[in-house]
Amino acid sequence: MKKKIVYQCSNCGYISQGFFGRCPNCDSWNTLEEKKEEPGKKAPSKNNKDALKLKSIEVSSDERVKTSIEEFNRVMGGGIVRDSVSILTAKPGSGKSTLLMQVANDIANKGMRVLYASGEESETQIKMRAERILDKLSDNIWVYSVNSLNSVLAQVEKIDPQFIIIDSIQTFTLDEFPQRPGTPTQTMECAYKMTEIAKDIKKPRMIFLVGQMTKQDELAGVRSLEHLVDTVLLIEGDSSEDLRSLMATKNRYGSTGEIGFFSMTEKGMISIDNPSEYFMTRRSENEQVAGSSLSVIREGTRPIILETEALASKTFLPYPSRISESIRREHLNTLVSILEERAGIKFLDKNIVVKSAGGIKVKEQASNLSVMVSIVSSTLNKPVEANSVFIADVGLTGELKNVPSLDVRLKEAERMGFKKAYVSKYSNVKVENYKKLQVIKMTNILEVLQKIFSI
Fold it and tell me: What is d(CA 348, CA 344) in angstroms, rounded to the nearest whole number?
């Protein structure tokens, strides 16, 4: 039968019947590649399993493998599922390979065999990194530097590892496909093959794929890759700073949006098991400074004490600056406008800079009151009273609004030894439930500022 010629985009996977210089789907130039398709019947499925009743399926308690890295376990939903495929992506230099090497060594120390296959680094480079970040190398780790996935599969048969790392999936190829590495066809077929290996009923395996990231800070390749795997992990963090955050954007075995925090050091990624201590500065009564306040935010399911710092300085320009790395500039302008109109504090001649401890991005509204208090504190040059947290949203009317999971946030503040918590009058929290924490309910932003600064 005559082979059919089509053209497939190497960037997005779009298939066209005719050739174009520019892909009609993603607008990339010179990415359509000729591909020959031989029509015919598909091969019969090799899967001869019978369907099972849902109630009859047994789930054992050892389906997950927990590591000694607590923040990693949290993001994974309690550990790595034995027949799962996960993909980890991040910008170059963020610590993908470092974290996976630590996880691999931890699992190997539990007596499991690990195969680390890399299409980007040589065995010597991998060994040098391992010696730098690990105190002792396990005897159960095998390293294989190659671009052929067929060769990797042969090593899987030979070594029989329970944990496999493919670094990165875009650099591997299967011999039966003529496309070059990194094309959608090769990437997806390699991912399909590894999924088949992981889901084997007789020998389930834990597989981690490293995924390259595009200039738009997205996982490289077609969206089908994200749909195929069980878990999609993302490492975020500025390469100039130590803080790294690990987030699950997809997790079939746990909650999506869970975040773990790490500190990047010469010894690898160190788990920050108590983020509340990391994202705040403990000061005594005599060490209080103007422009600093504390709130309790939620990252995933966990409450975290977060310090917000503000600096209000005199401007000599017609338009004062509004600068923030932690919240959007439009949001900062909104909070400043509320302070001007509802609290009567003018900022026409003030530059305002807002920063959160550790450079963490604030994505929820519960810290709005804390941000506004820190701005006023810097403007008046008056420090905020010690051992206080501010947990409330602030509306355009100046009223304090209730925030979700307030009880969880207040319990974290009480656990960390705080004495006062300012919340919305409209919250339904029971103040008598907190013995060591005084929960103060306020109506609006002006009432809060009058009580704190006596304005």
Answer: 12
Tokens coding 92: 């170059």
Residue with tokens 């060594």, as numbered in its chain: 105
CATH class name, domain 278-453: alpha beta
Ranges of H-type helices in 205-303: 224-228, 275-278
Determine the straight-line distance between the first and last CA of the chain, rounded to whole angstroms.
Answer: 87
Q: Where do the structural domains in the chain lie, given as residue ranges?
A: 4-37, 63-273, 278-453
Alpha carbons 446 and 176: distance in angstroms, whole number: 70
Which tens digit of pLDDT belongs to each residue from 416-442? 999 999 999 999 999 899 999 999 999
CA distance 452 to 296: 19
63-273 and 278-453, same CATH topology: no
Tokens representing residue 344 in the block: 């009567």
Cβ proximity of 368 and 335 under 8 Å: yes
Fold entry, domain 63-273:
Rossmann fold (3.40.50)
Number of Cβ atoms within 10 Å of the Cβ of 139: 9
Number of C-beta neighbours around residue 40 at 10 A: 7
CA dihedral of residues 442, 448, 451, 453 (deg, nearest 10): 170
Q: What is the largest CA-CA distance in the chain?
A: 88
Which H or E run contains 321?
none
- Residue 297's CB is within 10 A of a number of other CB atoms, namely 25
C-alpha span between 179 and 11 (Å, rounded):
12
CA pair distance 160, 443, nearest whole angstrom: 64
Task: Provide the 3-class DSSP secondary structure of residue 36.
Answer: strand
252, two tokens: 């079939």
Low-confidence ranges of the chain (pLDDT < 50): 1, 40-45
3-state secondary structure of 216: coil
Q: Who contacts 189 (Cβ-Cβ below 8 Å, separation ≥6)?
A: 174, 177
| Residue 226 identity (one-letter amino acid) | E
122-176 tens-digit pLDDT: 999 999 999 999 999 999 999 999 999 999 999 999 999 999 999 989 999 999 9
The C-alpha torsion from 216 through 217 and 223 to 224, rounded to 10°, is: 140
Token pair 């905020």 in the structure block, residue: 384
Handedness of CA 161, 162, 167, 171 (dihedral sign): positive
Residues paired with residue 246 on neighbouring β-strands, in sequence order? 235, 260
Q: Are 271 and 69 in contact (CB under 8 A)?
A: yes
69 has which bridge partners?
none
Measured between alpha carbons, how far is 308 from 291 in angstroms, rounded to an integer? 8
Residues 142 and 366: their CA atoms lie apart, in Å, by 47
Q: In what order do the strands lie in the sheet with 85-90?
A: 141-145, 114-118, 163-167, 206-211, 85-90, 231-236, 243-251, 259-265, 268-271
